[in-house]
Write a structure and sequence with these properties.
Layout (H helix, E strand, L loop, with lengths): L23 H18 L13 E6 L5 H12 L3 E6 L11 H9 L5 E6 L4 H8 L3 E7 L5 H14 L7 E5 L6 H12 L3 E5 L15 E3 L2 H7 L2 E4 L15 H8 L3 H4 L7 E3 L12 H4 L6 H19 L8
Parallel strand pairs: 1-2, 1-3, 3-4, 5-6, 5-8, 6-7, 8-9
């Protein structure tokens, strides 16, 4: 795996814009490859030459810690040449369009673009105008495919057979790209998906996606096998979605006291960043039920897998 992509089973997709529309075979291939790269990360060297000579540009138009560092770490572990684009100091500030900026960067002979953008669908626009491989690192409240992949990886490591298991996404669903990608991925694996939170944070008609809805956290805890706790995205809220953070914590915050009512041994995930004392208490975030730091490590391994597998399409992405 350290010298060539030739002979490797290929993904059916040439880019990673979202989980919606992806087939289970592609997801399984990514997860299998992720496990192989996780073994690499456990070695003293931690580095392979799989993307030697490949240039990857990271274009982040929104703040990010975990995702940005995780992608950069994955790229460097694969020996890629990495360029970090800073929107705040770019020609975009002078009125240049995103497409013109991206085309100018591509003219310098790059191969892959990892982008986070506040506008849903921005990655499709890049794909239609560039020859590079495009990877979505989050677009608005639309999708965050690599987060869903690392979340799925973290779940199946503990609960290998998800068919019929109930996975509940708790919190700010309406603003969450993580929730949307997770729903698509979990359903591909046969899980029963449920969302829980205040009615103001649950999208209207989300049942049409084939998910269950409850506004009662105690009910969700009683019937869940896995809970993925989503933060309250205060930066995206327009107007008040609930009276106060204290009230939110009282009704929908995850505490050990509430988890004690569970029928099953619940696995707790959180994509970060965490608002401790709001959607999750310290004793849960640092407790025995959670796999939060496992998610972080799996993020590097799974992004290595995505980059590696998609690199087979370099030179013929369209």
């Amino acid at each position: 795996m350290d010298d060539t992509v030739k002979g490797t089973k290929l993904l059916k997709t040439k880019h990673l814009l979202g989980i919606k529309g992806m087939c289970r075979e592609d997801l399984e291939l990514i997860l299998q490859t992720s496990e192989s790269f996780k073994q690499v990360l456990d070695t003293p060297n931690k580095k392979v030459a799989a993307l030697k000579g490949v240039t990857v540009v990271n274009m982040f138009f929104e703040n990010s810690t975990r995702t940005k560092i995780s992608f950069e770490m994955a790229e460097k572990r694969l020996s890629a040449d990495v360029v970090n684009f800073a929107a705040s100091s770019s020609s975009l500030k002078k009125g240049e369009t995103l497409i013109d900026t991206a085309k100018n960067i591509e003219a310098m002979k790059i191969d892959m673009v990892v982008m986070r953008h506040s506008t849903p669908g921005a990655h499709k626009m890049l794909m239609d105008n560039l020859n590079s491989i495009i990877i979505n690192a989050g677009d608005g409240a639309h999708e965050h495919p690599t987060q869903a992949i690392l979340d799925l990886m973290s779940i199946v490591q503990k609960k290998p057979n998800l068919k019929g298991k109930r996975v509940t996404l708790v919190g700010d669903i309406v603003h969450s790209r993580v929730a949307m990608s997770n729903i698509h991925a979990l359903k591909l694996y046969g899980a029963k998906v449920q969302v829980c939170g205040p009615s103001t944070l649950i999208p209207k008609d989300i049942e049409k996606m084939g998910v269950e809805v409850t506004y009662d956290l105690d009910e969700a805890i009683r019937n869940s096998d896995v809970m993925n706790i989503l933060r309250i995205q205060l930066e995206r809220h327009v107007g008040a979605s609930f009276p106060s953070l204290r009230e939110y914590h009282n009704y929908w915050g995850i505490t050990n006291e509430k988890l004690a009512r569970a029928k099953n041994d619940i696995l707790i995930l959180h994509p970060g960043p965490m608002n401790r004392g709001v959607e999750i208490d310290d004793d849960v975030a640092d407790g025995d039920h959670q796999v939060i730091l496992d998610q972080v490590l799996n993020g590097v391994a799974s992004r290595m897998a995505v980059l590696y597998l998609l690199s087979a399409n370099i030179g013929g992405a369209k």
